[in-house]
Amino acid sequence: MEFDTIAAISTPVGEGAIAIVRISGEDAISIADRIFCGKESLTEVPTHTIHYGFLEDPKTKERVEEVMVSVLRAPKTFTREDVVEINCHGGVVSVNRVLQLVLREGARLAEPGEFTKRAFLNGRIDLSQAEGVMDLIRAKTDKAMNVALQQVEGRLSHRIRRLRQTLIEAIASVEVNIDYPEYDAESVTLAKLKEQVIDVREEIVQLLRSAREGKILREGIQTAIVGRPNVGKSSLMNSLVQENKAIVTDIPGTTRDVLEEYVNIRGVPLRLVDTAGIRETEDIVEKIGVERSHQVLKEADLVLLVLNSAEELTKEDEALFQAIEGLEAIIVLNKIDLDQKIEEKRIQELAQGRPIIRASLLKDEGIDELEEAISRIFFEQGVETTEMSYVSNARHIGLLEKAKEAIDEALHSTEMEMPVDVVQIDVTRAWELLGEIIGENVHDGLLDQLFSQFCLGK
Ligand code: GDP
Ligand code: ZN
After folding, report:
1. 335 C-alpha to center of ligand 1: Å?
2. 229 CA to middle of ligand 2, Å?
3. What class, spelled out in words, does domain 6-120 have in CATH?
C-alpha cells in the first residue's frame, strides 16, 4: 500500500517535559533532515539511532529548538514505514513550532489514530494487539462520552454516536474473528454481537417514539377532518377554531383546498386539516383536494371522520372507514338535530371501538364531548413532555427507521444461524445509516472511524 507522509504530536501536550513529534512515511527522514542541524545527515545514519542537534527553519535560518531525533527505518517500526521521532524539551509553543515546520516541509497532519491505522493496514498488528485495540477503543469511548455530555451540541448526535460506538465494537469484534479464524470464538462473538445489537435497536425505538412525541408537541397532533361533501367538516373546523376562517356553504364540494388551523384543545395541540371529501370526482379542482386528502390521511396522527346522521350511510362513507383503517380516529355523527336516518349499529361495527360522538355543529352540540374524547386519546397515550425530543427532522426519522430495519435483518440472520460476516453486513449498514444522521456518511470510513478512536499521534 502507498501512503503519504504524516506527522503529529504524539505525546499528550503538557504531559511531562518532553514532547515528541512523530513523522511516518516515505519522506519522513528527508523531511527531518532538511530541518535538522547536527553532526551528520539523518539520511545517512543507521536505523534505530538517536541524534542530538538543533532544528533550523530553512527559510529564515533561525534555530527553532534543541532536539533529540530518532531515526527508525522500515520495516521494523510501529507503522512499518520510515519513522522519525523528534524529541523536544519545550512546552506547547515550541512543539507546535516543530510540527508546523515539519508540515511545511511536506508532511501532512495525521488524522487521529492514523499511525495505528497504518500499523494495522501494513500488517503490523497481530491478534493480541488487535485485542488491545479493542480495549483502547472502549477506554476512549467513556472519555468521549463524558466530553460529549458536557458539550452543548445536540443530544441526538450524542446518542447516535453512542449507538454507532456500540455497533462499531460489534463490527470490530467480528472483524477480529474473520481475520483470525484460529481464534475460534465465533459463538461467543455472535452472542455478544446479538446483545449489543439488541441494545441499539431498543434505543432506536425509543428515539423514534420520542421523535413522534416531539413532533406532536412542536407541530401539534396532525388531525385530518374527513368526510363526504356537505356533512359538516368545515363547520366542525369552525367550531373547533372558533373563528370563521374555513368557508361554510351549502354547495357540496366547496372546500376545494385543504385548510389548516392550529388549535389548542384542553392543552392538546391540534393541527387541524379540513379536506375536500375523499371520493371519486370528475372535477379537476376538487380532485386536487381529494388527492391532498389522501396525502393528509397518510400524515395524520388523528382522524375526525364526519358523517351525516340525517342520511343513510353511503358507499363513500364505508370507503372512508376503509381509508382510515389502522389510524387513530374519532367518528363524528353530525346533524343530530335533523331526522335520523343513519344506522347506528352499523356505525358501531365500522368504528371498531373508536369513540363515536353525536353532534349538531349547527346547534353547537357535541363539541364538549368531542374535545373530551380528543384529550383522552392524547393523554392515554402518555405523551411525555420530559423527553422533548431531539429528533425532529423527517430525514433523521427515515434514517432511524432504516437503521432499525437493518438491525432487524441482522438479528434475523443470527436467529437463522448465518455466518457472522453475513450478520456483520447488516450491522455495518445500520452503522452507516446512523452516521448519515450526524453527517458522517463514510462509505469506506469504517476503518477511519475505528482508528480515530485513538489519540492524535498514536
Ligand atoms: P363540509 O362540506 O363537509 O365542509 O360541510 P359544511 O361544514 O360546509 O356544511 C355543509 C352544510 O351543512 C352547511 O349548510 C351547514 O350549515 C350544514 N350543517 C353543518 N352542521 C350541521 C348540523 O349539525 N345540522 C344541520 N342541520 N346542518 C348542519
Ligand atoms: Zn367544507
Report:
1. 8
2. 7
3. alpha beta
Beta bridge partners of 273: 224, 260
Question: Each residue of 192-224: pLDDT tens digit?
Answer: 788 889 999 999 988 887 666 655 655 667 888
Distance 322 CA to ligand 1 centre (A): 23
Pairing of strands 268-274, 6-9: unpaired
Q: Is 339 in the pocket of ligand 1 (CB under 6 A)?
A: no
Closest to 403 measured CA to CA, from 448, 447, 435, 440 = 435
Decide which of 173 and 297 is more confident. Answer: 297
Q: What CATH number belongs to 129-210+391-439?
A: 1.20.120.430
233 lines ligand 1 (CB under 6 A): yes
CATH 3.40.50.300 is held by the domain 219-378? yes
User: Is the ipTM here above 0.95?
Assistant: yes
Q: Where in the chain are the domains?
A: 6-120, 129-210+391-439, 219-378
Q: Is 308 in the pocket of ligand 1 (CB under 6 A)?
A: no
pLDDT for 184 equals 54
* CB-ligand 1 contact for 320 (6 Å cutoff): no
The Cα 442–Cα 229 span in angstroms is: 52
Residue 18, pLDDT score? 65
